[in-house]
């Protein structure tokens, strides 16, 4: 467990197993030569505890992020950058910031990014060399939210790009490259 009022920066040439990192308003920067995973398998819980709380969250791995046990994170600034050389990315962002921006990239592997919290999400780039991409956002009926796909959006290697909103929310997309593209909304538009 790491608790800090300032930035938290951890580098490991192997795997990183995360129990709790709470940086308050500080930024969290994790770098692993292997994978970065939750130390506990709590994927089935409805509202799991966050593994990482901080301002900017920047995760860089060689072999996946949340690929064995999904990572649950909360960025108070809404600024998330997750990159892996290869391997899956599987992250739940339990958002509190009014505006959230995520950049997601891996080589051979799938991306699965879910945001809850009834606030809008901009994915400013989601890229796989060979793998599926799934982006999910839980919107808000009272104040409709938007899932915006901007920048480079590519599910490489003949794979599928899925984007969905649940409860309420629209999808606004620029250019998306994939063999199969599947967008779905509840009480929202697709542009």
Features:
191 residues, mainly beta, nine-stranded parallel β-sheet, 20 strands, 0% helix, 55% strand, globular
Would you mind describing this structure in some detail?
The protein has 191 residues and is mainly beta. Helices cover 0% and strands 55% of the residues. It has no helices and 20 strands. The protein has strands at residues 2-3, 8-12, 16-18, 21-22, 28-32, 36-38, 52-54, 57-61, 71-75, 79-84, 89-94, 99-108, 111-116, 120-130, 133-138, 146-155, 160-166, 170-173, 176-177, 180-184. The strands form 3 sheets. A 9-stranded parallel sheet has the order 1-4-7-9-11-13-15-17-20, with no helix packed on it. Strands 2, 5, 8, 10, 12, 14, 16, 18 and 19 form a 9-stranded parallel sheet that branches. A two-stranded parallel sheet has the order 3-6. The protein is globular, with a radius of gyration of 16 Å.
Sequence-ordered SSE layout with sheet pairings:
Blueprint: E1 2-3, E2 8-12, E3 16-18, E4 21-22, E5 28-32, E6 36-38, E7 52-54, E8 57-61, E9 71-75, E10 79-84, E11 89-94, E12 99-108, E13 111-116, E14 120-130, E15 133-138, E16 146-155, E17 160-166, E18 170-173, E19 176-177, E20 180-184
Parallel strand pairs: 1-4, 2-5, 3-6, 4-7, 5-8, 7-9, 8-10, 9-11, 10-12, 11-13, 12-14, 13-15, 14-16, 15-17, 16-18, 16-19, 17-20
* Sequence of secondary-structure elements: EEEEEEEEEEEEEEEEEEEE
Structural class of the helices, strands and pairings?
mainly beta
Rg, rounded, reads 16 Å
> Mean of residue pLDDT?
93
Helix content: under 10%
Major sheet: arrangement of strands = 1-4-7-9-11-13-15-17-20
Shape: globular
Strand proportion, as a percent range, falls in: over 45%
Q: CA-to-CA gap between the ends? A: 43 Å
